[in-house]
Write a structure and sequence with these properties.
Uridine Diphospho-n-acetylenolpyruvylglucosamine Reductase, domain 3; Alpha-Beta Plaits; 19 strands; globular; binds flavin-adenine dinucleotide
Amino acid sequence: MSEIPLLKSAFHSLDRCESAHGTLARPDRYRTLRELLKHAPQIIARGAGLSYCLASAGDGTTSIAMGRFNRILEFDRETGVIRVEAGMALGNLLEFVARHGFWLPVLPGYPSITVGGAIAMNIHGKSAYHSGLFADHVATLWLEHPDHGEIRCSKLERADVFDLTIGGFGLTGVIVSARIILKKLSGNRIERTRIKTANLADTVAVFDKHKEKSDQIYSWNDLNRSSGRFGAGFAYLESFIKVPARGGFEPLAPASLESERVSCSLVRRPLLDLIPHVYRALEARRPERAFLDPMSAAFPLLGKEGYLRACGAKGFREMQIIVPFVNWSRFAEGLERLVHNFRITTTLGSLKIFRGIGKYLCFHSDGLCIALDIPLQTGIDAFMAKVDELMLDCRGLPNVAKDSRLSATVAKSAFAGYDEFKRHLMDFDPRARFQSALRSRLNV
Ligand SMILES: Cc1cc2nc3c(=O)[nH]c(=O)nc-3n(C[C@H](O)[C@H](O)[C@H](O)COP(=O)(O)OP(=O)(O)OC[C@H]3O[C@@H](n4cnc5c(N)ncnc54)[C@H](O)[C@@H]3O)c2cc1C
């Protein structure tokens, strides 16, 4: 243990609202990793540290940075099954598999997000309606636990551990590698169509009309407008298509977002209020239909780091909620009322469409998914508490990964599997060796 440098560190969530003091270790060998697991009293695996909440650090906890475990271990070019180490960034993985005619069925907004982080939060992407969540495409996991040693698990082998680990916030151990089932690339361009929408209801109508035939569907909505224009914006439909073209795909643009460097002290609040106007104006100047290199369309927030840095200047909150289709209209009306009553300014509103069912605290069900980015401002806490009430009343689910203030009480009310998750975690790991600020807040 003495030979492993442990760096005292202050950690912050991406939204700058949750902090902790712990230590950081960067092992590069399995032997060192196992030694850390054995000796550090409280531990948690850390991917890129890009969660909006503080999930991979905690007070007095040793965060194990997995970035040096980033190799491809196996790749079957015929079947498209790949085994990679968990610290690998999804952008690097995507560049590799795309060269061989494959694609990752689920991609988040940013390429530095790691395989381990994607599994532990069971993330979704723009393709949620057709492709489900990241872990739906994970066949096997290899997990290290200080008391249980190495565990290989899948839907068929130690399924209890597999289920607890996907979307398990890193609390069952360190995922060291995963076998992922890729999808065959069905084209060499993404055709993106942008449709202007008058309000939230109009956006949902566009989704309904196009969801079956679009590979990916999502929207940008301005939630600062009123009088029938609440949520006016754009719906985006994306599908892979084949066009005659030479050469390979473009390389990804460099990723520069790091959770520790997200804020920009020059940004003042009135400038943030302009963000939706600027976005709308820029979009309106772009063509309604475009044929994009898939790499450039893969990660929507790559190249828009300035947005997160600006929001992060004084801290911001994100909320993401899936609302069952039957309750959507009631939720949307309630949200509009709350935004206006509390005079809240949002910098982003966005919709996606989901179908499926999730276990434990998983962000998965049938319904419409809405995301809001809200810079810290007067009344924000009371506003968000009211949105929690509205969500619970409409039987919605919150995204634990995105909301750094979500309380144990709200999580327990929202997720039918909350008590079971807590109980199964304690059965598996009675010493509760894996700890984070998120775990303490959710009281699991
Ligand atoms: C710009 C941006 C866009 C995003 N877009 C999306 C999106 O479209 N959809 C979506 O669902 N999410 C999205 N997210 C959220 C992000 O995908 C998740 O928070 C993800 O978990 C972050 O992964 P990470 O590698 O940064 O891991 P961290 O934030 O470091 O950790 C996240 C969790 O994973 C655990 N973990 C990490 N590695 C391991 C491992 N090897 N073994 C066990 N546990 C591990 C940690 O303990 C922690 O609980 C976005 C985030 C950003 C910043």
